[in-house]
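The material for today's practical consists of a large collection of protein records. There is nothing in a record beyond a sequence line and a structure line. Backbone structure tokens are a discrete shorthand for how the chain folds in space. Nothing more is needed to start thinking about how sequence determines fold. As an example, a complete record with its sequence and its structure tokens follows.
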Amino acid sequence: MIEIKQTSEGNPLIMSSVSDFCGSMGYCELRIRHYLKGIKPPQTQKTIDGTKSHEKEEVYEKEHFTFEPVTEEGLKDLTKDIEFAREGLFTRFQRELSFGTEKLSILLYGRADKVMRSNGTLIIEDSKYPASKGKYSIQYQPFDDQKLQTLLYLNSNYSESGSLNESDCFEISCEKKAWIINIKDKATLESIKIFQGFQTSEAKDFLNEKVTRFALIALGKVEPEHHNNVRKCQSCRFTDCQYILH
């Protein structure tokens, strides 16, 4: 769901889950209109299977690995490698934006699959369990929604409680930031394709442009664009969407 509230200064505050933001700006901008109305797409077998695969990964890790508690000093010490348990951190991404004399805030919240720091590099790994593996055999880069998700996590603050209060969140010091998108077989959990890269200035520009456009669409200042892709519409879970292409 996407909500528009007000800050204590009386400016708009746009709140959204990371998944709804990425589904809108990485797949179809028209979804913003649905989310603003509180309309959520129905669960499909694909989404149910994906959730089960995530749960299996989490259980496996708990049974086979033990992680050292991360201290405040450890978060700041770049010489110390750290790793958090799978789905152990919630994320909070906030930006203040200005359009002329208007000011607004945007707050995107989520939960990262895997967060770690190695040799001074903050790494976010996100696992995907597609229903169809074939399309990835010719895919040389991740889809926009997948990359947006990892970039948001990389540029967030974190909490173990899920609190959205800034005072309850912490930063992880780093020299560089890197993302990994791990495409896995939903039955065996084995990797079938791995996309990875460092956060570049181009990647940050890509994220900032999407965040700004999302805010403008949500506030009704810019019209969402239709992707005009029939195959996207056929795969979309919003099956009763008035903008669907046949």
The longest strand covers residues 89-99.
